[in-house]
Design a protein that fits this description.
By secondary structure, this protein is mainly α. It contains 4 helices and 2 strands. A two-stranded antiparallel ribbon has the order 1-2. It is elongated.
Length: 114
């Protein structure tokens, strides 16, 4: 699993992304009470983002376990291990690209004159 930082300060990329999104949400100046009164039924955008990040994290954990099982001899099928690792890599790259697009959009909105 990809992580950022060193020593005890290591956090996963997904956790860093969630904290960045929460910071952007808090710094956007939205009033919490006003947003709650207009809240539509169903999951919010942040709920979808959190679920997606958790899914990426789950793929990373499965890939790590598959690689460990192959290295220790618990599994003999290298094909499944490589498929699991490739799937984890693709989902991680997709998450990074979505993060980049979201940040670009946020920066573009912040550059707009009021």
């Amino acid at each position: 699993m990809t992580s950022i930082g060193t020593g005890n300060n290591r956090i996963s990329f997904g956790q860093q992304l969630l904290s960045e999104l929460r910071d952007m949400n808090q710094s956007s100046g939205l009033n919490e009470k006003a947003s709650q009164s207009k809240k539509p039924s169903g999951p919010s955008f942040m709920d979808h983002v959190e679920n997606s990040i958790k899914a990426v994290n789950d793929h990373q954990k499965l890939a790590d376990k598959a690689a460990t099982d192959l290295a220790t001899g618990k599994k003999q099928n290298i094909h499944e291990t490589m498929l699991t690792a490739s799937q984890a890599e693709i989902t991680f790259n997709l998450m990074v690209q979505m993060r980049n697009k979201a940040l670009e959009a946020y920066q573009e909105v912040m550059r707009m004159p009021v």
